[in-house]
């Protein structure tokens, strides 16, 4: 009892020395005034540091975001200007043409974005914005843009005008052309102001207008009038009449014909003929070829347009005379004995003339048939045209020309133009265009041959062989019954329709 009482007395006298029991501990949170001084200071400091911490985090976020945005902007600017630098100094650089390319004047055929065939890059007088717009137009046309499209109604344009047939008869225009047209239009507006100050290169304005007109021409029927007006402005903007002027006159003539302005078309075509052969004393086909290779090609293009015009307007006498005299002009040019023995530039010129003879032969065959001459004459000219175009194809793909016979005509084994043409920055485009034109002409000639053999000469087996040749040339090598890449849908439907119509009869 003594010990117990003593212990209780000690607890009562010195409570701080003995901790209280957990059961007696209060669950109420201590108030700040109940805490020791050091602990009170720690709690107050924690409350004060909350807003400061949030502010510091926000400040760091803004700083890093600003740095990221600046870095992204600089990267985008460098990439943007780097692309323009590449186009200016690589794509627009003056190609190192060999002596042969210049001898055969393929440098004059090159698409000119600089305003001077002897200078590379854009015209410095266009200024910073103008030069960027010209490069942007080139990039939009060559490299493409976003996936947006422009749509016109089916009565505005046709598929052959450069659009793609869409749902419910709508025509979808290539957005690359739309963007390029806008950029060039703005560049021309700037060039007009610079032209007043007489700072541009002599041919810059004419070349920009020609490029703009070319794009408008491919955008459809609604743009043809504007394209013609731009070509006329390009004609008026020329510093002088030169060899290239014949091509502008030819374009204006072709567009006038498509718009139904026959009188104007004839005037411009005859002007193109006179520019190509200045020594011509009267209107019509000259009696001799010009010495310039570029002028030879320009002259034959103009004569082809004249021949087609006379044929389609019913003036068969002039059409026949124009076609026959033009063919005589081509024969007057000495042709190489072997394509393999001459330079690619010379070969491409010879093949171009051969293709022109093929086109004129088709015109002549149609005129003779319209004049009710014996069908065998038209068939012979069509066969000659088809074989000539196929020789062009073989020459462009690096195959010998003399392995082709009238009895066994093979489609071109390859759609790849020979590397000697493709690897040349000057010959690439004209060689590719020539391949496309030759393939189309050969298919058309064989199809017409089949029609005459079937309906006039009454030889269905020979007609089917002609249709088969046409299908080989116009059709895809990957999938039977589908057109090749550059074959127009309307042409393919006619060719394939004739083939499948006669095929069951040949299998009976």
TrEMBL record:
SUPFAM superfamilies assigned to the protein according to its UniProt record, in alphabetical order: TPR-like
Segments of this protein annotated with the region Disordered: 18-42
Name this protein carries in UniProt: Uncharacterized protein
Cross-referenced InterPro entries: TPR-like_helical_dom_sf
Biased composition (Low complexity): 18-29
